[in-house]
Structure prediction request, 437 residues.
Amino acid sequence: MKINVNELKKHIGEKIVFSGFIDAIRDKKWVMFVILRDNTGKVQLTIEKSDENNKDLLEIMANTTVESTIRAEVEVMENDAVKLGGLELIPSKIEITSKAEPLPFDFNNLDGVNIDTRMDYKWLDMRNFRNTLIRQVESCMTEAMRNYLYKNNFIEIHSPKLIGTASESGSDVFEVKYFDRLAYLAQSPQFYKQMALAGGLDRVFEVGPVFRAENSNTNRHATEFTGFDLEFAYIDSYEDVMGLEEDLLIAGLSAVKKKYGDQILEVFGKEVIVPTKPFPKIKLKDLYAKLHEKYGFDIPKEDVGDMNAEAEKLTYQLAMEEYNSEFMFVIDYAATKRPFYHMRDENGKLQGYDLIWRGVEITSGAQREHRYQELLKNAKEKGLGEDVKFYLQFFKYGCPPHGGFGIGLDRLTMLLLGLSSLKETQFLFRGPNRLNP
Prediction:
């Protein structure tokens, strides 16, 4: 088992094997310092030139390069003069496990490096501590949200991503050749989450890939991203769904703040703010009025009944000014702007919401329509037929009232760290013009 940099203090005075990247080589007159790195930090390896036993070690290091990987038998020593944690490694044997060629760019100084070049060499870009931290933060948040759901009796499912009919509609889906017929990449696990509830599972969630064939080149859209989706049964209204989302986000952000809050503030200049319940909420028509009154903003005619990017930014400003909250629920959307499976009340009012965080929509949630005849009517109204026939079957034999939502993890991480684009946030970005690496 590899011993990491952050574990070395437990091994002071011991002889161990240490492996990592060569971060820097400083060849001085009387000594050679080699800075080694793994994803938990850096440590100094010290080779004294006056020691005849070190002749072979010095020759090995003189013929290697920065960013090569190393395996060294060392003794872990305390040394208060060493800035890197007051520790140094004294080697008795060194093996270069992989020799690096000259780098195409300096990943420690990304100023002026084109984002496409960085994505072309993503494995080098990730060696920058800033990008390592992105992955650690997203992993921490995902783990905390997962654990919250496990503790609240949710079951994790894994729905298929190859499906036989285009979900919701025939647009914005990727077609795939599937033997002698066409298949499609799933736009979301929505239908299968609901099928699980019809099967009696009551509370389910999934973390997995989502595909959208949208030829969009905005900073917050991707053709493939990681969705965190959940659905649960026996709710009384969509407010139950909102309440669960509040708790889920509080759990995720609390864990991130505790483990990485200081590093996020230092590296990204963003404070992790853990919200308190309840998040403020506002009806869409009241929001329109407020945005007009305070900021002179009127929603364009084509977006009436919904939001656009400018409205989302101003909603965040309103939430901060009037509620001192980074979050705002927006309710009472037009049914024409939402999927057919969102429930409507007896007056046709949509039983759902959007959640805005830091000026961007992160969730569309709702109570779902679980009554077969109502679903038939809604699907017909939207002009959906064969595409959703298989889905409608789930509700023929009884299904409890339920609701849920989905969060894009990549977008959530982007907003948390104050990044400008999913190209920086995602492990490997997928967009209309990028399929590699």
Q: What stands out?
A: The mean pLDDT is 95. The radius of gyration is 27 Å.
